[in-house]
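chain and backbone:
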Amino acid sequence: MSNNLFQKNSEKWAETNPQKALLLPFLNLKKSDVPKETDKQAEKWFSTLDLKETSVLFVYGIGQGHYYKAAKNWLKGKDHRLIFLEDDLDIIYRLLSTKLGEELLHDKSVSLYYFEGVEEARETMLSLRWEFLTKKIEVSCLDFYGKTKNEKYQHLRHRILNDQSLHNSLVKEYLDFGAAFFFNFYRNLKLLPGSFLGSSLYGKFKNVPAIICGAGPSLEQHFSTLKNMQNKALIFAGGSSLNALIANDITPHFGAGIDPNSAQKLRISQTCHVKLPFFFRSRMHHEALKLIKGKRLYIPGCGGYDISEWFEDELKINRDRILDEGHNVINFEVEIAHALGCHPIIFVGMDLGYTGMRSYAKGIVYDATVSKKDILKSNHERNADDFDLKAILKKDIFGKPIYTLWKWIIESEWMGEFAKEHPDILLINATEGGLGFPGIKNQSLKSLGEKYLNKNFQFEKRIETHLQKGTMKQVTSKKINRLVQELKSSLMRCVSNLNILLEEIDRISQKIKLLKKLEPGFNILSGRAALFESDLFEEIGFKYVLEVFSEAYAGVLNHEIRLVRTGKMSEKKKALKKLELNGKRLAFLKTVAEVNLELIRMAGFDTSNKDSEEGYVGHIF
């Protein structure tokens, strides 16, 4: 062990892990718990990995570095990366005292990160997500950690894969020009006149209990109790739980929806004969929203896009409090119940697992039973991207085994985090089964009666009274049409400006190609381009539609941009590459603008054309 070697390696590691590197010299080294692997064991581990088309490999545990040696040949592949995640600083200390550690740290295709908990490792992953965008990743671990820390490894693995999958899905939505979102958004604008402002109910139900219903198998045991509590607590239902309650003659006080997919239309069509106030956001499937017979309650804001902000400001729709809609309609309902002032907030039917080997409560699908064989299918037997559809065995709130999915575990964790962030709210899980939520106590629904559900409320009258103050008389079809035409004109100017900028990129590129050598200080942004770029940035269409796409596409190009900045190439080649990448981004933005113009026409705002679903974006759907 060389102190000089350790010092050099520590300084090198500090480039990516500065805070942790400072701690290394002050460690009291342990005498045990150091993974003892050999080259032969490492080679055997690597031979078991299915890395076909995989570009990035995460490994939990660094050990003595033998797993790095086993992966060396694979690292020679194009854009292959190896990321080690280690939660023991002592092991990192020992590695940094070796020549192999020095070699690993200087290998540009390898990174070593320290983390304490899974959330910290997740933050590391999120910082790298643009670099690994659209690339296939895999997660493995030291054999020693697989045996001694398997639960932590499994949690880490699925967190990394799930986060990357969610990020890729969002970016894919952007790369599809946001067409699925805007397709519903523009059509739903037509339903705003006559809708009520849902946020006008915020704070109007202080200390009123709320019951939020999931669609899990355990919901059916609460049907009779819920019928008797309809005047004691505000009952929320969205998605499939709405179908289950109505099929069993229970009408919740509020429905909710944010799902942009066509499945939402089918669910709503089965319940639309019942009139109830319904919270929605503008991304909801437009045909499903049309089917709502009760009062539509508009919730301002829209995750991932800025366009609703502009319309809301122009229409003088109050945006004082913008809710986080979370991952699904249940999260959305929890946020709404909190905003209404409800206390406590009680959960029922949120099994987040296959209770009794069933997926849903009665009244949702004809047969909700599942087989162990089907839910345990390996990823090789299903789409590799659906990694979280393979069931795993966990313990339910009673300590009994239950099959669940990683997406449900993450939902459980979201609720636990919400509870941490809002200690002022009493959250109670009355599901009476299932996975439960970290930090949220479990109680039976009947046991809550005496303490929390002992008052009678005239909910219908109270809701109706408050909603009369939530009418949006200032939101008219005429105003919306005027704003859409204003946005349309701005988007057309954006297209014009983008065309000029693309022409300038082509002109400057041709000029540079004719030069033998690029002179120092050569400005690749011409005066004409700077002027039109400035005009572009001022457009409403850019600020509220295109800008988020510009940022997303810059992330997509992140790897190529980094190569231009750090790669060894002449100034001339760098300039040409920069122009090429900027041209790609501007051409993409032009398409986004054109898609929006077509979607506006398809929504029927262009009176000179018939409402048609054919044309520029027809292939997207």
Q: What stands out?
A: The longest helix spans residues 477-513. The radius of gyration is 28 Å. The longest strand covers residues 54-60. The CA atoms of residues 146 and 549 lie 41 Å apart.
